[in-house]
Amino acid sequence: MIKIDLTIDNKIVKDVYVAKTFYERFKGLMFVSKQNSFNLLIENCNSVHTCFMNFNIDIYCLDKSYKIVKVYNNVKPFRFILPIKKVCNILEIPTTNKNSTI
Description:
The protein is mainly beta. It has one domain: Jelly Rolls (Sandwich), CATH 2.60.120. It contains one helix and eight strands, in the order ββαββββββ. Strands 1-2-3-8-5-6 form a six-stranded mixed beta sheet. The two termini are 22 Å apart.
């Protein structure tokens, strides 16, 4: 995965990893411990699940210009976010990661 700083609605989110391969996109934050968690951008994606995750996350649904379309805060494990029109990218941020909150 590559690491970037991402600007969303004129706010910078630091240390965002971009899931590029099929495996990175599929795995996401599954089985990652809370201590080893990170911010994850999944491009060309409009729905996600939190199955097999060990902590809650905030989910930012972004359009193709990386503007926020919808936000889901404190999403618990084993939940599903169904496809949303206009959403092209998903940003997953561990709920407790105060440095990266938008």
